């Protein structure tokens, strides 16, 4: 039964995130916000809503390893698997704004997280620091959106009432799905003799990252690198600064030693994608394959350790 409920939870997370993104993106389209900004903010937040629901719920329930493991595992999955797969499917030009600003924010946020957890905990003060950084980043995004509003891309839109309904229903499904995933993933971990950290880094991380995968691959097929890469980078930033910020403010998180190693790996893959973006104006198929192989190697490592 717990396996069925876990699948139901994932289904609710994916469908809920899809509805939330559709509703939010529709409103952004009506306001004529550029696709890059949509990818870095609204879509990134929407597709990261499952991680938020799971990590915050897990933190409040005392499952700290699932809370932090979910974020770190999701970020590694986003960079190596999601971006790698998009590069293999359709190598696209890297938006200049991402290279000038957002990848550096991603590296800084990842290193900042490592520094905060070196004492093997994320305190409420650490959470406040992460949230202040998040507000600063969003402020920059809003300023950029207002600056480029006149040049906004045309987006497919629904009516405003329908957009709001989609966003509200999507959020409700995300919250319910998050509860189901945390409860049943914890039961499976106990039944299999797995640690909560491993469950968070694998099963939960991949499951909650499905919205990012679907959204980025779809955008990549359409040749919209602003949405695809912006979604992955924006989701990583949102996961670290907002999700862990909120989770640790609500309930301080104790950090398992192995998760410090995984955070260092997360920093390494974040630097890797920056190097790939810098070597040319796009991440090519060969680099995409390297990233996919890297994720397979990482998964084998955390299962075997």
Task: Explain how this protein is built.
The chain has a two-stranded antiparallel ribbon. Helices cover about 85% and strands about 0% of the residues. The chain has twelve helices and two strands. With about 300 residues, the chain is mainly α. The protein is globular. The protein has helices spanning about 1-30, 35-45, 50-60, 65-90, 95-115, 125-145, 160-190, 195-210, 210-220, 225-250, 255-280, 285-305, and strands spanning about 120, 255.
Question: How many extended strands?
Answer: 2
Averaged pLDDT: 80
pLDDT below 50 for ≥5 consecutive residues: which ranges? 150-154
How far do the termini sit from each other? 29 Å
What general outline do the C-alpha atoms trace?
globular
Instruction: Please give the count of helices.
Output: 12
SSE string: HHHHHEHHHHHEHH
- Major sheet description: 2 strands, antiparallel
Percent of residues in helices: over 70%
Strand content: under 5%
Strand order within the widest sheet? 1-2
Radius of gyration: 18 Å
- Estimated structural class: mainly alpha
Give the arrangement of secondary structure elements.
Layout lengths: L1 H29 L4 H13 L1 H12 L3 H26 L6 H22 L3 E2 L1 H24 L12 H33 L3 H13 L1 H12 L3 H26 L2 E2 L2 H23 L5 H20 L1
Antiparallel strand pairs: 1-2
Helix pairs in contact: 1-2, 1-7, 2-9, 2-10, 3-4, 3-7, 3-10, 4-8, 4-9, 4-10, 4-11, 4-12, 5-6, 5-10, 5-11, 6-10, 7-8, 9-10
């Amino acid at each position: 039964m717990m396996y069925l409920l876990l699948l139901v939870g994932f289904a609710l997370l994916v469908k809920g995130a899809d509805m939330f993104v559709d509703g939010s993106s529709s409103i952004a389209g009506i306001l004529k916000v550029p696709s890059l900004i949509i990818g870095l903010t609204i879509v990134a937040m929407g597709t990261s809503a499952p991680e938020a629901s799971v990590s915050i719920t897990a933190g409040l329930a005392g499952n700290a390893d699932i809370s932090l493991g979910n974020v770190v595992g999701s970020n590694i999955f986003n960079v190596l698997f999601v971006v790698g797969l998009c590069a293999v499917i359709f190598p696209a030009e890297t938006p200049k704004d991402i290279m000038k600003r957002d990848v550096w924010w991603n590296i800084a946020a990842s290193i900042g997280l490592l520094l905060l957890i070196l004492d093997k905990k994320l305190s409420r003060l650490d959470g406040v620091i992460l949230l202040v950084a998040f507000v600063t980043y969003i402020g920059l995004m809003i300023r950029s959106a207002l600056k480029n509003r006149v040049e906004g891309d045309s987006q497919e839109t629904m009516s405003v009432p329908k957009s709001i309904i989609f966003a509200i229903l999507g959020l409700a499904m995300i919250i319910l799905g998050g509860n189901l995933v945390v409860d049943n993933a914890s039961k499976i971990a106990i039944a299999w003799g797995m640690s909560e950290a491993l469950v968070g880094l694998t099963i939960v991380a991949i499951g909650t990252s499905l919205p990012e995968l679907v959204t980025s691959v779809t955008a990549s097929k359409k040749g919209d690198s602003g949405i695809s890469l912006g979604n992955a980078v924006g989701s990583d930033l949102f996961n670290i600064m907002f999700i862990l910020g909120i989770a640790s403010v609500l309930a301080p998180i104790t950090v398992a030693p192995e998760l410090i190693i995984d955070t260092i790996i997360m920093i390494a893959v974040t630097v890797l994608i920056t190097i790939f973006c810098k070597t040319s104006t796009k991440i090519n198929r060969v680099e995409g394959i390297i990233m996919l192989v890297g994720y397979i190697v990482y998964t084998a490592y955390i299962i075997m350790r």
